[in-house]
Amino acid sequence: MIFSFNLLQSFFYEKLPLPKELAKILTLRIFEAEKGEEVENDTQLKVDVLPNRPDCLSHFGLAREISAILKLRMKPLKFSRFREKKKKKGNIQVRVIDKKGCKRYTGVEVLNIEVFPSPTFIKEPLLTCGFSSINNIVDITNYVLISLGQPLHAFDLDKIEGEIVVRRAKKGEKIVTLDEKEYILDPEILVIADKKGPLAIAGVKGGKRAEISEKTKNIFIESANFDASLIKRATKKLNLETHSSFVFSHHIDPNLTEEGLNLCLSLISEIVGGEIQKRIDICFEKNLPKKILLPIASVESLSGVKIPEFEIKSILKSLEFKIKKEDRETFSVLVPTFRQDIFSKEDLIEEIVRIYGLEKIPSILPKETLILPKRNENVFWEEKAKDILKESGFCEVQNYSFLSEEDKKIFKFSNLIEIENPISKEFKFLRPSLLPLLLKNVKKNEKFFREIKIFELGKIFLAGKKNEKIEKRNLAAILTGKEKFFELKGVISILAESFGIADLWFDFFKPTPEGTKEVWELEKSAEIKIGEKEIGFLGKIKEKVLKSLKIESEVFAFEIYFDEFQNLAIEESEFEEIPKYPAAIRDISLWVPIDVLSDEVVAKIFDAGPDFLRDVDLFDIYEKEEEGRKSLAFHLIFQSNEKTLSPEDLNLAMEKIYQELEKKFGWEVRR
Amino acid sequence: MVFKSLEGFLFFDKINLMKETVKVILNRVKKKIERAKNLKDLEKIFQEFLIKEKGLKKIEEKKREILKKKIKKELMKKAKVFKEKKKIFDITLPGKKPEIGHLHPITLVKREISEIFQSLGFSIFEGPEIEDDWHNFDALNIPQDHPARESLSLGKTIYLRGGELLRTHTSSAQIRFMEKNQPPFRIVAPGKVFRREATDASHEVEFWQLEGLMVGKKISIANFKAIVEEFLKRFFKKEIKIRLRPSYFPFTEPSFEVDISCVMCEGKGCTVCQQTGWLEVGGAGMVHQNVFKNVGYEEGKWQGFAFGFGINRLAMLKYKISDIRLFLSGDLRFIKQF
User: Fold this and answer.
1) Is the peptide bond before A151 cis (omega within 30 degrees of 0)?
2) Do A444 and B330 touch (CB under 8 A)?
3) Which of A109, A638, B114, B273 could disulfide-pair with A90, CB 3.0 to 4.6 Å?
4) Residues 6 or more apart from A158 whose CB is under 8 A from it?
């Protein structure tokens, strides 16, 4: 909010610090502030009034704060004497129908006025604060608004027909406002109306019908208090915000209506003249000062610094809190009604501490028993997985959590969680997989890097069977280039090893109803399983998908359900004795039918071999497609825990293996 | 010399002539070897004198063999020199750089932050990204129609079909934790938060925050100052000053903004801190008693502090990154720098 430095200064006997310096002080003690522009003789002060301090949405309110912070004496508000009729003589009646929407309504008729331009002392601060000067009447109401923070409204009395009613608008009721705009209203909106219809949108803007013009002779001044939420909702609905509605959308003190009206009448009497009739004051809720008990020790306990009792008292007093000693350890504090934000002793402590000076609070490390924290399992395993991928040469990326309408079509995802108020089509759904955006990363980086090796470990989101929202973590990686299936397979194997997962294996791809078949090229893809549980996919991304995303490279990827993966992880690795006896390697190569899986052959060699056959390592494949067979070559690694194996032991073992493979399966061993 | 007979004279001459010839030939060959430029040249000399025996035929056999041995020795000597020259190792050739991977800067910063807080006795807790109104607003003392629900940046909320929302701050994690745990405790809860706003160099739709919460019998503002100072000092690896300014959050009372002395100019004033000498790090305050009430704690029994820092912001300050949009860009030219 913009303040006029001159108007602020007018509340003090002594000179205030210069605007720049004042702004610095306010920043440290109450609100962020900065010096604004110079407007003629005046300077703007831009102050970020916090939402819980509507009492500072006025020059008087802010001056009150400054007085407490700088310990300067304030001048009282200049109220010239004005005469108000003692007996009810006015014609106007007011009826408040919506009592919750309007806690207090005061109003007064002033007869025989004249409309003309305002004097300088009224105009100047208005201009500094960004208001235009209209005429004496309107300007005075605005002056009261910026001085006291009480919005007023002036009606041309002669244009009002019948009694004034404060009610909710009827559906479809219309009003043309002062700036010639038409608004269609409904029962969510509070209006000031007469027999003919709405005269003003309560607390927001006045209507043209009863506006103050040069010809106006008699006026009705309204000084009321409207419910903050109601006003807020109206401004949103009508897309119309004014300085008045801004002030009203905070909980301001209903007692302010009286002060506001008094200041207004005093200024009218001084500047305009006219006859002031007896005021109307309809009040439903008397706003009484709150009493809060403040245990003196609690100030030190919460802040960590000992503030002397006399200083606590003096600070609260300077903020217009009334203090009494309830007993030796407690103050009883009476909160002024303009502080609608104070409810508890903590609120009081905040006041004390900020005026005292937050910089005066020392830094003291807490003296509590240090219990070493338990490690967070999710974080531990996530970091482990990330490190392994990094060590394998992958770069970690992070992508948005959203999926676009377009990608939904390309990937044919289902069970998506939809965004109710999306920012754009790109952010229509929550992502059910990390792959779409990882592929977009490939597209982006293709032109700069020959090979792209990236991964992401992040959350994906799905709608469950009962429409519940599921949030879980996936780990996905991408490798571009030709024939990278086995390279990725190797990475998954290392992951499984370091997570202590022994029974991770790869199964042929069986497309699931979740539409994952749209993504993977079936022939070069596999399901990743642990035991019988599917925990992800590995394979080549379909050309069709790459084309839709305009990706040039060939892409291989895997995506693992990380929550499930982690649940099966075991951390202990046991130290294995380094073998005492040397290992011996024998090679074997055999012809098998071309469709026999290498896994199978390995398993059968193990079966046929002795206990001391430790490892079977495939090192060569030679396919003869036209003969329908292939030659597989293995290193067989033998090692015993009990003795050094002799050539006889090894020969015997090899013979047995040859026999079994040839006899049982008819595979030709190449000797 | 006295020659007894002409034959004696001729014979003697023959021997002298032979001696001369051997010397001359050896010198001639030696010169040739010296002039040889490579192994091929040496090969030629070898062929000429040791195989074809050019000019050596007149020399008697025994002496011829000795001469040939001498020539061979010279050839071998020179050959060795050539062979050694071939072995020169060019150390100035570029090395073969292994292709190393990189972690995302947010991961690096998160790790560092977590380590520092863990060493200060804080546990790490993570709350869900999908939240409901109660955990994200109401329990934090932000009821409907409260001005704070709109005017604080909390108003820009992304809602899901079905009524849930994407959390707008990690403060909801405070509620999640306190629902299931009793004080005293100290936790940090890093996590992603979401805002419905237009992106630019300093605003993003999703970014990372770190929530801190320490609750006990006598936890005070002074304790908060000490913990935060210690954290920032270790994170920025230099002596820093912090400053608390009054602020307002519905879930803390008192509330503050936390500033750190500008890490670029050490508080002297520069473009990064807009000449103020201070940088905003985040918000904090003493947990509001209503929040304790909402999670079911005994009234008036506990007090503590809470804070919320921007992890992206800390990363940007630490690594001097100018645009927040880089974090979610997926641009490897950015990520490979870390």
Assistant:
1) no
2) yes
3) A109
4) A216, A217, A218
Nearest residue in chain B measured CA to CA from A423:
B196
Does A100 contact chain B (CB < 8 Å)? no
Instruction: Judge: A358–B102 Cβ closer than 8 Å, yes or no.
Output: no
B93/chain A closest Cα distance in angstroms:
23
- pTM beyond 0.90: no
Q: How far apart are CA A312 and CA A308, in angstroms?
A: 6
Judged by a CB distance cut-off of 8 A, whether residue A27 touches chain B is yes
Residue B154's pLDDT is: 45
pLDDT in tens, A109-125: 999 999 999 999 999 99
Among the partner residues A52, A373, A393, nearest to B118 by beta-carbon distance: A373
The residues near A64 (Cβ < 8 Å, ≥ 6 apart) are: A55, A56, A74, A319, A320
Query: In sequence order, what E strands does A493-609 have?
Result: 504-508, 520-530, 533-541, 555-561, 584-593
Least confident of A340-349, A454-463, A615-624: A615-624
Residue type, A188: E
pLDDT digits (tens, 9 = 90+) for A264-310: 999 999 999 899 998 999 998 788 899 999 999 999 999 999 999 99
Chain B CA closest to residue A299: B220
Higher pLDDT, B20 or A378: A378
List CB contacts (< 8 A) between B246 and chain A: 29-31, 50, 350, 354, 358
Cβ A350–B246 below 8 Å, yes or no? Answer: yes
CB B131 within 8 A of CB B167: yes
For the segment A481-487, the average pLDDT, to the nearest whole number, is 93
Q: Looking at the complex, does the CB of residue A297 fall below 8 Å from at least one CB of chain B?
A: no
Q: Each residue of A172-211: pLDDT tens digit?
A: 999 999 889 999 999 999 999 999 999 999 999 999 999 9
Name the residue with higher pLDDT: A458 or A370: A458
Residue A40 burial (C-beta neighbours within 10 Å; 0-12, 13-18, 19+): exposed
Does the pLDDT value for residue A44 go beyond 90?
Answer: yes
A409 has a pLDDT exceeding 50: yes
Rounded to whole angstroms, the Cα distance separating A393 from A381 reads 19
Q: Which pLDDT value is given to residue B328?
A: 96
Closest residue by Cα to residue A512 from A545, A488, A534: A534
Nearest CA in chain A to B252: A346
Among all residues of chain A, which has the CA nearest to that of B221? A303
- Write the CB contacts of A218 (distance below 8 Å, at least 6 apart in sequence): A109, A110, A111, A112, A113, A156, A157, A158
- The first and second tokens of residue A172, run together, are 């479809």
What confidence score (pLDDT) does residue A406 get?
A: 93
Query: Which of A343, A391, A423, A480 to substitute to test the interface with B, most B CBs within 10 Å?
Result: A423
SS3 letters across A245-267: HHHHCCCCCCCHHHHHHHHHHHH
A466 at B interface, C-beta within 8 A: no
CB–CB of A548/A404 below 8 Å? no
- Out of B124, B145, B159, name the one closest to residue A232 (CB): B145
The confidence score (pLDDT) of residue B152 equals 46
Nearest-angstrom CA–CA distance, B317 and A628:
64
Predicted complex ipTM: 0.85
List of chain B residues with pLDDT < 70: 1-20, 85-87, 147-148, 150-155
Query: What residues in B contact A459, CB-CB < 8 Å?
Result: 129, 192
C-beta atoms of A372 and B303 within 8 A: no
Tokens of A393: 């040469």
Q: Kindly report the backbone phi and psi dihedral angles of residue B106, in degrees, each rounded to the nearest multiple of 5, phi listed first.
A: -65, -40
Mean pLDDT score of chain A? 92
- Closest residue by Cα to residue B171 from B151, B193, B148: B193
pLDDT at A513 over 70: no
